[in-house]
Design brief:
Blueprint (H helix, E strand, L loop, with lengths): L6 H25 L6 H23 L2 H24 L4 H18 L2 H7 L1
Length: about 120
């Protein structure tokens, strides 16, 4: 890690942390009686915990965390692009999801971000 953390990296890390926390909360809710699916709740908690760990790595300048987030964002981008055509009823949510993934990738690879992760 070289220099101060760029604002774009901080933004992506905060969003990832919040996403992980919400996944854990959703997973815990699914564990209660009447929840939709116990197994899905457990998976949501696991994925949420991994997301939080990766977000903490972004805060610290871990290049491994940046690569993991980039892979996840790339998958989200491909998925959103596919859904634009496969499910026209979800056009706006797919477009928004795809744009967020693209912006996240761009923010993680600016010149200041590259210096921070080097």
């Amino acid at each position: 890690m070289t220099g101060p953390r760029p604002g774009g990296v901080t933004l992506v890390a905060v969003i990832a942390w919040i996403s992980g926390a919400l996944q854990i909360i959703g997973g815990v809710i699914q564990l209660f009686p009447g929840g939709q699916n116990f197994g899905a709740g457990v998976w949501a908690i696991i994925i949420g915990a991994i997301t939080i760990v990766v977000s903490l790595g972004l805060f610290r300048g871990s290049n491994v965390s940046r690569i993991i987030v980039t892979i996840v964002f790339a998958i989200n981008l491909v998925s959103a692009f596919f859904l634009l055509f496969a499910a026209p009823s979800s056009f706006w949510s797919s477009l928004f999801s795809g744009l967020l993934a693209l912006v996240g990738i761009l923010l993680l690879y600016t010149k200041p971000a590259n210096r921070f992760f080097s």
